[in-house]
Amino acid sequence: MSASLLLALPELILSIGAILLMLAAAWGGDGSSRGITLAAVALLVVAGAVALIAPGGHGDGFGGLYRADAFSDFAKLLIYAATAVALLIAPNYFERNGEMRAEYPVLILFSAVGMGMMVSALDLLTLYVGLELQSLAAYVLASFTRRDTRAAEAGLKYFVLGALASGILLYGISLLYGFSGTTSYGGVAQAMGGEFSAGLLFGIVFVLAGLAFKISAVPFHMWTPDVYEGAPTPVTAFFASAPKVAAMGLLVRVAVEAMGPAYDAWRQIIIFTALASIVLGAVAAIGQTSMKRLLAYSSINNVGFALIGLAAGTEAGVAATMTYMAVYIVMTLGAFLCILQMRDADGNLREGIADLSGLARTRPMLAGALMMFMFSLAGIPPLFGFWPKFLVFDAATRAGLFPLAVAGAVGSVVGAYYYLKIVKTMYFDEPAPAFAPSESPLEGGLIAVTAALISPFGYLAIPVLGGISLAAAHALF
Fold first, then answer.
1. Nearest of 63, 192, 190 to residue 126 by alpha carbon
2. How far apart, in whole angstroms, are the C-alpha atoms of residue 432 and residue 145?
3. What whole-number distance in Å separates Cα of residue 14 and Cα of residue 106?
């Protein structure tokens, strides 16, 4: 048991820390929220360092329910980094409206525990427990600003559709258990290696459908624009980054380790989902007037590109998918940090694309950073966002999926239109009322760091990022 506890040390640190911070929140009240937030960030840093060092080594724990390996370590580092950024930007946002609560960082930490379990799960039941722990915290976070009707609506929609997706996932798990006689990934894979029954096929379909909801892939994307628009902006930034990595990591591990022998069966589903997400994410974003809704469709679009790597079904494809998620969270967090700067003279947040008109003349540095994030999300070289797109297309081509790579490339051209529209609005339209000067050096510093990471200087990180991604992918095969 002690060996298993050492393997799960990152989750133990976050769980115990979250419980202690919950007690501190009960005694200290909302006045202690900033201190609790900083303590939560410190816990994430410690948990990330433990995941990187892996004092318990790598292996299976708790009777084959949990696995610590290079794949889970890499995913957890991305999850904890994105979660820490979402925590750091929250106090300045919520305190303007008197909505900052001491339980906010506690909910975020519990969500991070669930995400860690998701990427380390080696059993369908562990998968479900981790997924629900993450989701239950997320439902509350979506409606955290209780006086805002949009946030209440977002939380309700997320909860109802999330419950539906959980039911679909549970039904798929029950089918896999019924026709394989086990819930462990290894046992399911062994059953799929023999005589392949219709029941197992339906189980694959339902499990992939439930997981597609969590990564907001078509056709289970319908919650994304409304929740992204209605939730508080720091929460939206969190939803668009950390849970996305966790759900993608979970999907990759399930597809490779549990359903690997049935590659020909699930590949068709992944290809359809990837292409549908790319097309809908590109086309539906064109008519949007809200930045947050546009980034919601951008998220759907980018998930489609990441799935191309998984569809390849190779180590290189999985490595490309994880590299894509690493670069994606940097670009997305940077874009949401820029949205947090869109405040009028009275301090009210402006989220419309039209509010960016002429931004290059009133806030040239902010306009330059946002332009970089938009070009990088579009995959336009020489910005670093081009590199992960190239990797997933290359992996698909090497796996014999040349038509899929071509379709993805065409879809990226269509998607570039709405990113370029934002740049055109900032640089060529008549100026709208100027935004108030930034009051947060932290937000400005984070924008500078994320912009530097997705600039051409980001290519210097290719040897390190590529090596880590390949090691993570190799751990699954």
1. 63
2. 28
3. 10
pLDDT at res. 88: 93
HSE toward the beta carbon, residue 159, CA cutoff 13 A: 14
What's the CA gap between 448 and 100, in Å, rounded? 26
Whether the Cβ atoms of residue 227 and residue 300 lie closer than 8 Å to each other = no
Rg (CA), the chain: 21
Q: What is the pLDDT of residues 177-222, one digit of tens each?
A: 999 889 999 899 998 887 778 888 899 999 999 999 989 998 888 8
Listed in sequence order, the residues at least 6 apart from 99 whose beta carbon sits closer than 8 Å to its beta carbon are: 144, 145, 146, 147, 232
Model pLDDT, residue 195:
73
174 phi and psi angles, rounded to 5 deg: -65, -35
pLDDT score at 436: 78
pLDDT in tens, 271-330: 999 999 999 998 988 888 889 999 999 999 999 999 999 999 899 999 999 999 999 999
